[in-house]
Amino acid sequence: MHIGAMIFATDYSIRTDELAIAMEERGFESLFLPEHTHIPTSRKSAWAGGPDLPKDYWHTHDPFVGLAYAAAVTKKLKLGTGICLLAQREPIVTAKSVASLDMMSGGRFIFGIGGGWNVEEMEDHGVQYKTRFARMRENVLAMKALWTQEEAAFHGDFVNFDDCWAYPKPAQDPHPPIILGGETDYTLRRIVEYGDGWLPRARHGFDAAENMARLARMAEAGGRDASEFSVSVFGAPDDKAMLDGWAEAGVTRALLTLPSEPRDDALRRLDRYAAVLS
Questions:
Q1: Is pLDDT at 203 greater than 80 in this prediction?
Q2: Do 172 and 105 meet the contact criterion of CB atoms below 8 Å apart?
Q3: Of 50, 87, 149, 261, whose CB count within 10 A is highest?
């Protein structure tokens, strides 16, 4: 099982290029960055983590910019969004960002996506909460067309464009893996329909054996094989015994959480986390 980390990369935490160098030196497999474009101050939408939303959520860098800095100073480190709020993004522009990052990194990008939870944030982007997953699905299908076809077109309820040329194409064939965040059966059905992997949260009580079996059942029901899908658990604990159990159950990747700390604090934490790599 691979071990990576995720961090809210902010204007007050360690730079992503410095972090990426340190992670690669210590043998970590991947770096994942989440995103929020902004957080409306009304705070009407409840956060699942508690009553007080950490300020990390409205201080984040754009993940594609942050990961580009990480790509430029590393050779092997995989680079992921965890998650990209795809329903809030324009798909043609986002397809170009993904393809550009994947090409320039030599095929190291992992496209973690999700529907999001902040209703007001979505509405500021002209997106309705009740249709966010339908929009996300169309965005994925449209982006796949742009990545894989010489002349791509797409016509749906939310995304519409006629034949066009769109380059660069991703380095990975046919495109970077698309992994979906969430824990529900609805999430698993979406993965089986148009995804390549699952990105569940550990803080929701991730039972590796039970959830790998659940994924296998959903895959079979959808006419696919569970072996086609990666499973990357984020918010993983630095508990070697637990991680060894996840590996035995077939989990692909565990993503430890790095707080948004300054450089020296982050490096000390990385050194402590490195104990689970052996």
A1: no
A2: no
A3: 87
Helix 185-194 vs helix 208-221: angle between axes, to the nearest 10 degrees?
A: 50
Q: What is the pLDDT of residue 129?
A: 97
Look at residue 139 in the predicted model and tell me its pLDDT: 98
Give the span between the Cα atoms of 163 and 51, in whole angstroms: 47
Q: CA 6, CA 203: separation in Å to the nearest integer?
A: 14
C-alpha–C-alpha distance, residues 113 and 223, integer Å: 23
Q: Is the pLDDT of residue 278 over 90?
A: no
User: What are the tokens at 93?
Assistant: 């522009």
Under DSSP, is residue 162 helix (H, G, I), strand (E, B) or coil?
strand
DSSP run (H or E) holding 7? strand 2-7
For residue 212, give both structure tokens.
Answer: 């790998």
CATH code of domain 2-277: 3.20.20.30
At 278 the three-state DSSP class reads: coil
- Residues 6 or more apart whose Cβ sits within 8 Å of residue 277: 3, 26, 27, 28
Q: Where are the domains of the chain?
A: 2-277
Question: Could you read off the pLDDT of 214-263 as tens digits, one per residue?
Answer: 999 999 999 999 999 999 999 999 999 999 999 999 999 999 999 999 99
- Mean pLDDT score of the chain: 96
pLDDT tens sequence across 10-63: 999 999 999 999 999 999 999 999 999 999 999 999 998 888 999 999 999 999
